[in-house]
Write a structure and sequence with these properties.
Length: about 450
């Protein structure tokens, strides 16, 4: 597969032009990549009006993922989420039905676009894990007029929803399904694809940099339903930077060659290595959560470890992980992890063992009571207060232990006594609230 963006930049570099254009480093190396860091010069195309090398590269990605069109983002899934929301809401009145564990980017986009949201709570035993079924969605769609259903899948701990089943329900009620698939770009390349686009989503975003060999900030916005293509560019430009990183664009471009050739075999081998480590961990008494194939999530509380104790043991072995709190530790893998990485982790579990479970009682998620709209709450004058003094106040900005997660209370909702235990449990000491009117 060709790599038009990378080839253009490489040729430009080799011709040794005098650079009377941005960026200011003029190709002189400081970090080692400056000579291939360019801007939108002649021939380099324009990300939000692509008709040249970027268009060709995006078309390559579209073929790989089987979409009507796939757009690039150099601002992660955050930009994609905002664009998807704008495209699906344009010209329509009504609310969006969203899983409560939506990323902050969704909340800010809804406020910016003045869209009201109803929340699907499903079942949750932790802020970072939410299970929503097709029955949950159908029951909610029966009782309201929604312009879209928005879900996060996989969630931060690796839980996968039944996107195919939920997609059928959405089609039954003629409501588009949008999925934040930030953690699941690789799902397309399993033996049987579990990618949202193949399971019935109308649009989804992938943070390519999370699970594929792409620079941080590289993401895809996949469109299955072509009616949205004419709107997506408008909202990418509306929310996005006019200075996209060509380093990130080149990494997305080069990744196409890898996706087209080697990734399926590499992922299959990686999944097998992870399964071997999981067997060792279970044999040694560690309690694992069910996850997507490229995550390993240890319930450290049920395995008998505190957060501090578990992290200390890992760092002695020079192992750093994605996430850890008092309940769960999350390990993320890709085919780019080395044999040494896998051997080191397997040795870690072989040398340690699970202990008597720690007594933990995770506070339940309390459904929020709306006092004002998302938009009004986020744009009001606000102040930060101790959570112990926040009862009765209106939340201005959501506070989560990790994004995406189930906010304990969300912008526009009233903080109640029952929320305080949850704030304490997850170590949240202060919260942004709407400032009281002095009058």
């Amino acid at each position: 597969m060709d790599t038009p963006i990378y080839d253009f930049v490489k040729n430009y570099k080799n011709q040794k032009f005098s650079r009377f254009h941005m960026p200011g480093h003029k190709g002189k190396k400081i970090l080692g990549v400056e000579d291939i860091d360019i801007t939108e010069i002649s021939g380099a195309d324009c990300l939000f009006a692509a008709d040249g090398i970027i268009k060709l590269s995006q078309e390559n990605t579209s073929k790989i993922f089987g979409t009507s069109y796939t757009y690039y983002s150099t601002e992660g899934s955050t930009l994609c989420i905002k664009a998807m929301l704008g495209a699906v809401a344009e010209g329509k009145s009504g609310k969006i039905l969203a899983g409560r564990n939506a990323h902050k980017a969704f909340i800010y986009a809804a406020a910016s676009l003045n869209i009201e949201v109803d929340w699907a709570y499903g079942k949750s035993d932790h802020l970072c894990r939410l299970n929503i079924t097709d029955s949950d969605i159908e029951n909610l769609l029966k009782n309201g007029k929604y312009i879209a259903v928005y879900l996060t899948n996989p969630d931060y701990l690796g839980n996968l929803l039944d996107i195919a089943g939920i997609g059928e329900i959405c089609r039954k009620y003629n409501v588009p399904l949008i999925v934040d698939n930030a953690h699941g770009a690789y799902l397309k390349f399993l033996k049987e694809s579990q990618h949202p686009i193949d399971l019935g989503a109308d649009m989804c975003c992938d943070s390519a940099h999370k699970t594929l060999p792409v620079l941080t900030g590289g993401a895809y916005l996949h469109v299955k339903n072509p009616e949205y293509c004419s709107k997506i560019l408008k909202y990418l430009a509306f929310f996005g930077s006019t200075s996209p990183s060509y380093l990130i664009l080149q990494s997305l471009d080069i990744c196409n060659k890898y996706l087209d050739a080697d990734i399926k075999e590499d992922i299959e081998k990686t999944v097998a290595r992870i399964e071997k480590i999981k067997k060792t961990a279970k044999r040694r008494g560690f309690v694992l959560a069910d996850t997507e194939p490229l995550k390993l999530t240890v319930n450290i509380a049920l395995s008998g470890y505190t957060k501090q104790e578990f992290l200390k043991l890992l760092r002695k072995k020079r192992i750093e992980i994605e996430f850890c709190d008092n309940c769960f530790a999350v390990f993320m893998f890709t085919p780019k992890n080395s044999q040494k990485d896998f051997a080191r982790l397997e040795k870690f579990f072989a040398e340690n063992k699970g202990k008597a479970p720690l007594r933990t009682q995770i506070p339940p998620i309390i459904q929020g009571k709306k006092a004002m709209t998302l938009r009004k709450a986020l744009l009001c004058e606000s102040e930060k207060v101790k959570v112990s003094k926040a009862v009765g106040r209106v939340c201005a900005a959501p506070d989560c232990s990790c994004p995406p997660a189930v906010p304990i209370v969300i912008s526009g909702e009233t903080i109640e006594d029952g929320h305080i235990k949850a704030f304490d449990y997850y170590g949240i000491e202060e919260i942004e609230v709407v400032k009281k009117d002095k009058n």
